[in-house]
Amino acid sequence: MPKVDLNGVGIYYEETGEGFPLVFAHELAGNTESWKAQVSYFSRRYRVITYNARGYPPSDVPDKLDDYSQEQVVEDLYLLLKHLGIKQAHIAGLSMGGNMTLFFGLRHPEMAKSLIVAGAGTGSTDSAMFKQQSEAYAAQLESDGTAGLANYLTGPTRARFKQKDPTGWAEFARLFSDHSAQGKALTLRGYQARRPSVMSLETELQAMQVPTLIILGDEDDPCLEPALFMKRNIPRSGLVVVPQTGHAVNLEEPEVFNRSISDFLTAVDAGKWETRSSGSGVGFGVKS
Q: Among 38, 116, 201, 246, who pairs with 157 as Cys (CB 3.0-4.6 Å)?
């Protein structure tokens, strides 16, 4: 079981395939197993790296709140890439992992050949409410364990997944139930509740030149406005909106998700992903 000590915290990771590195960072409700369909597809051409964030066994679960923050999770990926001898990679993430991906591109643009930011920005339009909700979820986890967040898995942004693919949703729910309640509660309080709103990053996003693909489902309401905000402010960005799809877009529509990313990476690798202001911007919509 590959695990590396990064500043005193053990981080579990997996590598599959050979080629240019492609990293996937999971959401709050996921882990490395959430990316099975992506690992199978992309490892044919890329060196695919998945890992469990701190707080998600078999990664370590630090017990102090200050061990969980936006800065810490970005640093974890930075140090993991250093450990693996990777100078540059394509970086992809969903939700919590998507926010980390965006901040990684802002903090370490030289290490990001491209960014895939999926289902990111929840809470950006009402940070106070998001913090309150994160605190409430953390309290539920501490009192009732992962079973206390059953409503989190059946809310409006997850309902379509359950309707479309009951078997896939049941596996998703099973994996969620195996998570560390303590690690998830600390992640909610230390990282989620304290991370800055995407809407506060206008100046930084406008200066970022990393090729970026933004992707989300059209029923992922909390992420719609942040996605449009990112699209309008990141010079080298494109936007994919997948119809009748919720938050876990990679699980709900893996074929569309994989194909959209594959087209994006092909354009980036060929030097054909342009800056919008040049008049030759490239973007991909959903293909049938």
A: 246
Average pLDDT over residues 248-273: 97
Residue from 109, 122, 115 nearest 27 by CA: 122
Within a domain: 244: yes
242: domain CATH number is 3.40.50.1820
Residue 101 within any structural domain of the chain: yes
- Give yes or no for residue 6 having a pLDDT over 50: yes
- CA atoms in the 13 A half-sphere facing the CB of 120: 33
Quick check: 253 and 242 in contact, CB under 8 A?
yes
Place of tokens 């994160």: 134
The whole-model pTM stands at: 0.94
Sheet holding 212-217, edge to edge: 3-6, 9-16, 46-51, 20-25, 89-94, 112-118, 212-217, 237-242
Joined tokens for residue 250: 């990679």
Is residue 97 situated within a structural domain? yes
Q: Specify the 3-state DSSP secondary structure of 86.
A: coil
Q: In which domain, by residue range, is 12 found?
A: 3-126+197-278
CA distances from 241 to 102, 217, 286 (A): 18, 5, 7
Phi, psi dihedrals of residue 218, rounded to the nearest 5°: -75, -10
pLDDT digits (tens, 9 = 90+) for 164-186: 999 999 999 999 999 999 999 99
Into how many domains does the chain fold?
1
- 150 part of a folded domain: no
